Amino acid sequence: MKVIVDHDKCCGAGNCVLSAPEVFDQSDQDGTVLLLDSEPAEEHRSAVEDAVTACPGTAISVIDA
């Protein structure tokens, strides 16, 4: 799985961090998403998919790599 974020779409809601803190964080400067792991282990798939669904800006996508 490969996680892709579009920083231009991110509104800084932080739902991704709440859903998958092992994969996402927020910038201290502007609150936008920071991708900690672009290819997380399969054990994080459910949490990452929850983050995709919870993102109000549709800034996160996942592709199978």
What layout of secondary structure does this protein have?
Layout: E1 2-5, H1 15-19, E2 24-26, E3 33-35, H2 45-54, E4 60-63
Antiparallel strand pairs: 1-4, 2-3
Verbal overview:
The structure is a single chain. By secondary structure, this protein is an alpha+beta fold. The chain has 2 helices and 4 strands, in the order βαββαβ. It has helices spanning 15-19, 45-54; strands at residues 2-5, 24-26, 33-35, 60-63. Strands 1-4 form a two-stranded antiparallel ribbon. The protein has a two-stranded antiparallel sheet with strand order 2-3. The longest helix has 10 residues, at 45-54. It is globular.
How much helix is in the residues?
A: 10-25%
Number of strands: 4
Unreliable spans are: none
Distance between the termini: 5 Å
Number of helices, where a helix is a run of at least 4 consecutive DSSP H or I residues: 2
Order of strands in the sheet with the most strands?
1-4
Question: For the residues shown, what is the average pLDDT?
Answer: 97
Describe the global form.
globular
